[in-house]
Amino acid sequence: MLIFVFALPLLAFNARCDDHGLLSALFESRPDIETWSAGFTQTRRFKVLNDPLVSTGRVWFAAPDKFRWELGSPPQTIVIKQAGELLILYPALKRLERYPLSVEKNKPWRKALVLFEAGFPSDETGLTNNFRLLSAKSASNEIHLELEPRDTAAREFINRIYVAFQTNTMSLTSTAVEFADESSLSNEFFEPVINGTLEEGLFEPPEDSGYTIVEPPTNR
User: Fold this and answer.
1) Which of 1-10, 170-179, 190-199 is the least confident region?
2) What is the dihedral of CA 167, 171, 19, 65, to 10 degrees?
3) Angle 98-100-108 from CA coordinates, rounded to 5°
4) CA 199 – CA 28 distance, rounded (Å)
5) Alpha-carbon distance 70 to 205, whole Å?
6) What is the C-alpha separation between 79 and 187, in angstroms, rounded?
7) What is the pLDDT of residues 54-113, one digit of tens each?
8) pLDDT 10s digits, 38-54
């Protein structure tokens, strides 16, 4: 399963008193982020490999809930979340997978989508319904969060999620996931741009008619 993990720049729940006070103060004064983009270095580690797999890419976000991830240069995989659906594109294979977001939440791609959307939640309640805050620490002008999925099925393949973001801008600096099979995935973000102008059509599927469109069955 392909999983990219967004950071979680909005959480103040179920923490110790000092954690809660720290986060609450930050979020009361946080800047409005309408758009956000950055480059990232992604590192994937497996027990069976001595050396990690390292790739680079870019990510874009537009309020309230659109995003686009590109992994590789040129992109090997593109993930787009737009109104009503999640798109996963494999440009080299000319393959486009469409996952409807109207289906019930227990579908496998809906569980993965929780991780995508967690980076820029529309409200605090929606986020805290999906994740449990285990710790929040401040260090070197950053806030570091350790989280656990609330969903039992999600915890079958994800143990922990770690997130760091800048305290003054709320810009993401890093994310990491520990999987149940003892593998891990981390993203280090660089050159972030807050409220910049995004290219028109960035969150739309390609106009190239050569793509094979696959729509996974919704009855599983």
Assistant:
1) 1-10
2) 150
3) 90
4) 30
5) 13
6) 15
7) 999 999 999 878 889 999 989 999 999 887 788 999 999 999 998 887 765 555 555 556
8) 999 999 999 899 999 99
Omega prior to 74 cis, within 30 of 0? yes
In angstroms, the CA 161 to CA 131 distance is: 9
In angstroms, how far apart are the furthest CA atoms of the chain?
A: 56
CA-CA distance, 114 to 162, in Å (whole number)? 15
Residue with tokens 């070197």: 140
3-class DSSP string for the chain: CCCCCCCCCCCCCCCCHHHHHHHHHHHHCCCCCCEEEEEEEEEEECCCCCCCEEEEEEEEEECCCEEEEEECCCCCEEEEEECCEEEEEEHHHCEEEEEECCCCCCCHHHHHHHHHHCCCCCCHHHHHCCEEEEEEEEECCEEEEEEEECCHHHHCCEEEEEEEEECCCCCEEEEEEEECCCCEEEEEEEEEEECCCCCCCCCCCCCCCCCEEECCCCCC
Q: How many CA atoms lie within 13 A of 10 on its CB side?
A: 20
Q: Domains of the chain (ranges plus CATH)?
A: 17-190 (2.50.20.10)
